[in-house]
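Why does residue order matter? Because the sequence determines the fold. Keep that principle in mind as you read this record.
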Amino acid sequence: MGSTVSTQVQKRKALSTEKKVLCDLNQSSGCDFPGCDYCPPDRKAWMAGLGAEKLHINKIVWPGTHDSATNKIGIPFVSRPFAQCQSLSIYRQLVLGTRVLDVRVQEDRKICHGILVTYGIDVVIQDIKKFLSETEKEIVILEIRTEFGHQDPPDFDKYLVDQLGEFLIHQDDHVFGKTVEELLPRRIICIWKPRKSPHPKAGDPLWSAVYLTDNWIDTDLPSTKFDSNMKHLSEQPPALSRNYFYRVENTVTPKADNPILCVKPVTGRIHGYSRLFISQCFAKGCVDRLQVLSTDFIDKDFVDACVGLTHARIEGKA
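Structure:
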């Protein structure tokens, strides 16, 4: 019992220290950067608003969501707080400005987060199609993976192509250097990450796992995650010279040995520092590597930060 108490005391001290580190950095360095004051007039159609004819895929800072389809996962007030990473539906996220979706499935095509389950993948597909029908020049990156510990849904690649075929941008390295306008009327880059099934190949309607990578670490300590994100981002080639998407996740994760296990208060430790992260990318000379930035419980400010930096890039200010 004594060692358990001592361990918890040390954890609380470490957490308190890490919170202070980010708070102090925010106060001393600020979170201003080129484009930080830009607010898109229409978040639902912000790509069109920036000019699809001059917006290159590899210049976009893509606002993404982590565990995107968990708004109704589990049982409300019982198991949901332990697995819910977004409060908005897929459709509402897209309307808000989200352009990268992270969806986890199990063998029966239902969305899951660990052992908890929610609605089927059809709900996600319907929401995406609804959004695309209401916009004209928005590109969406849809990452679908089989959740760890689960089996691939049978023939899932065929299902995705059947459901999304008319919108799919086929796997092609040349896509990264093209503008949004050049890719239209196709609107979805769908990255399928099975655990055991064959992976998509060059020219296929779906994209393979190597086209969206990250360096996710399992921690509930915000400064540790912030520093890890910065380190791994700085090790990437500039976005203009690589043919894959690199994601930074502005999230931290509840740990089983910590008294606080609900997602929202834990991830809230880092949630408000997305603008600080961007400003520090400028300070450390690696902002040209930033491409996909994802978060839990996405909000307008997060979207505006990503769109603002994108606007600065196409204006030649970043």
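The chain has ten helices and nine strands.
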